[in-house]
Design a protein that fits this description.
The chain is mainly alpha-helical. The protein has five helices and no strands. 30% of the residues are buried.
């Protein structure tokens, strides 16, 4: 089934984001050199997640939504809603001894390169997520 593969791709990408952001944050807190380019990988994951959640262009004055199914009833809308839900949970979850990652990322504490991709993803979540998205 083709839909199962797409669903796995969305979940896998967002799981990668869930793994890279805390790892990058850990090395930022310790002022240590990263053994891997986690900030770059986190940036890529944030950009991909923003696209999966519905934004077609970079954030800014001319940022537009994907025109594939704006009404929310298109054949991929359930995947987009799943991506929004998972991304919201990743960015707002509080882990033991650690605050939610969204405020940390938005102020540039992990790296300035993550600010715009985080805003883009947040915009996509607000635009395409349901009103009770983050439970």
């Amino acid at each position: 089934d083709d839909t199962g593969v797409r669903t796995d791709l969305v979940g896998s990408t967002l799981n990668l984001l869930n793994a890279t952001l805390p790892y990058a944050h850990q090395f930022t807190n310790e002022d240590a050199d990263e053994p891997l380019p986690m900030v770059d990988l986190s940036e890529a994951c944030l950009l991909v997640a923003g696209s999966m959640c519905g934004l077609a262009d970079p954030i800014g004055v001319h940022s537009i939504a994907q025109n594939c199914d704006d009404a929310g009833d298109g054949k991929y809308s359930h995947l987009r809603l799943d991506a929004c839900t998972m991304a919201c949970n990743i960015l707002t979850a509080k882990k033991p001894g650690q605050a939610a990652l969204l405020p940390t990322v938005l102020v540039g504490a992990i790296g300035e390169s993550l600010i715009v991709p985080s805003l883009r993803l947040s915009h996509a979540i607000c635009t395409y997520g349901s009103i009770d998205l983050c439970g």
